[in-house]
UniProtKB/TrEMBL annotation:
<dbReference type="GO" id="GO:0010468">
    <property type="term" value="P:regulation of gene expression"/>
</dbReference>
<keyword id="KW-0677">Repeat</keyword>
<feature type="domain" description="Protein bicaudal C homolog 1 KH-like">
    <location>
        <begin position="48"/>
        <end position="119"/>
    </location>
</feature>
<dbReference type="GO" id="GO:0005737">
    <property type="term" value="C:cytoplasm"/>
</dbReference>
<dbReference type="InterPro" id="IPR054727">
    <property type="entry name" value="BICC1_KH"/>
</dbReference>
<dbReference type="InterPro" id="IPR036612">
    <property type="entry name" value="KH_dom_type_1_sf"/>
</dbReference>
<protein>
    <recommendedName>
        <fullName>Protein bicaudal C homolog 1 KH-like domain-containing protein</fullName>
    </recommendedName>
</protein>
<dbReference type="GO" id="GO:0003723">
    <property type="term" value="F:RNA binding"/>
</dbReference>
<dbReference type="Pfam" id="PF22985">
    <property type="entry name" value="KH_BICC1"/>
</dbReference>
Length: 122
């Protein structure tokens, strides 16, 4: 990273065998800059919130990523929203994914979706 004058090595970018992968990142440089580089890398990691949504009336159109409120939340809060089917009948897991550096946006987006999709007053 140019900002910290550190050398950062993300392993396994050139390995072909998925069974021999390593998940360790190495950072070398002056100790104070290494810590700063580590903090910056951590802020880039994804942050994921999820909640279960049970449909009260399964006859209604299922909620998905194309719903207007979902589109608005994705655009306004810079998050990605996905729906995954649960093992429970008529239930979905709603997954809200954003960046650690924008954790307040991810938290707010999740709250907005819970209030709108679960009919909970704000």
């Amino acid at each position: 990273m140019e900002l910290t004058c550190c050398h950062i090595h993300f392993p396994d970018s050139n390995r072909n065998n998925p069974l021999e992968k390593s998940n360790q990142v190495s950072i070398s440089g002056k100790i104070e800059w290494v810590e700063r580089a580590r903090q910056q890398i951590r802020m880039l990691t994804p942050l994921i919130f999820s909640f279960e949504l049970t449909m009260k009336n399964p006859v209604h159109t299922p909620i998905n990523e194309k719903y207007p409120i979902v589109q608005m939340v994705q655009d306004q809060y810079n998050v990605m929203v996905t729906f995954r089917k649960c093992s429970k009948l008529f239930s979905h897991n709603v997954v809200v994914k954003g960046s650690e550096s924008e954790w307040t946006k991810v938290e707010r987006a999740t709250g907005v979706l819970i209030h709108h999709l679960c009919d909970i007053p704000e």
